[in-house]
Amino acid sequence: MPTSKTRKGSSWGIPTCESRSLKPLRRGPRDTVGPPIMSLKERLKSSLIGTPLQGPARRLASWLKPRKWPAERLAAAEEERIDRLLPLVLRPDDNCVDVGGHLGSFLADFRRLAPRGRHVAVEPVPHKARWLRRKFPGVEVHELALGPAPSEATFSFMPRRSGYSGLRSRTSTANETAVELHVQVARLDDIVPADRPIRFVKVDVEGAELGVFQGATRLLGTSRPFVLFECVAASFQLYETTAEQVHRVLHDDCGLDVFLLQDWLEGRGPLDRAAFQAATTPDDSGLVAAFNFLAAPGPRSAA
Fold first, then answer.
1. How many CB atoms neighbour CB 136 within 10 A?
2. Taking a C-beta distance cutoff of 8 angstroms, is the pair 121, 101 a contact?
3. pLDDT value at residue 23
4. What does the alpha-carbon distance between residue 186 and residue 212 come to, in Å, rounded to a whole number?
């Protein structure tokens, strides 16, 4: 999906000692078999995260690669809205959770805006989890997938587009073959202690949002945090879930309202179930109203 993985990040879900438990789903002419490693592009991006050069590098990248398509412009607008959102809701002592830690851009924001908080990251791919531990030594990094119940599963790692990896396999191409990782699945409610209040949760799991929320109803219902999550119709099809199910868990089970980012920032009201479904459904041109949504305990005026 056409979101900016440099800012948001995704890929999630394997246990600590499973990095050798790999097999290719399909061999391609340019593929190698072995434990996933960080690409040169990811190394460059990750080295800039959390440094004074991160902002200028993002602006330079945008200048070098203009946003020509509507989906690209929407992704850029959402990055700007996320940058506006975080300082409004995070306080120095807040605890945060990053589900789909990727290269750590959100963890850098959490450490900057909530330096005294106790932060948790869930990141599946071994080399990324190791990177996050080195980059953010005070963060609890869990190499696990998240779901509604403890189990084992298969994780499809995309070597050249690692931000699109997930618990369901995406189509391989001539230049990229998915690598199969055997993973363990846990509930977020079992990872975060019940006595730790959580202020903010970011979820970017390439379509597995419903399972993550179903395994986090205690945390979401008790802490009633802000939840930034990616959610699009293509992922619903991949996981055989619906926008209605996601809205029901967040709103009915956990007491959170669901907003467009722009609506929350401008003090407008939440989306009901039908409006949320419409916002995740592509129009005739293939564009959706949003890639990312905010579940919150109320409108901006109540934050």
1. 21
2. yes
3. 34
4. 9
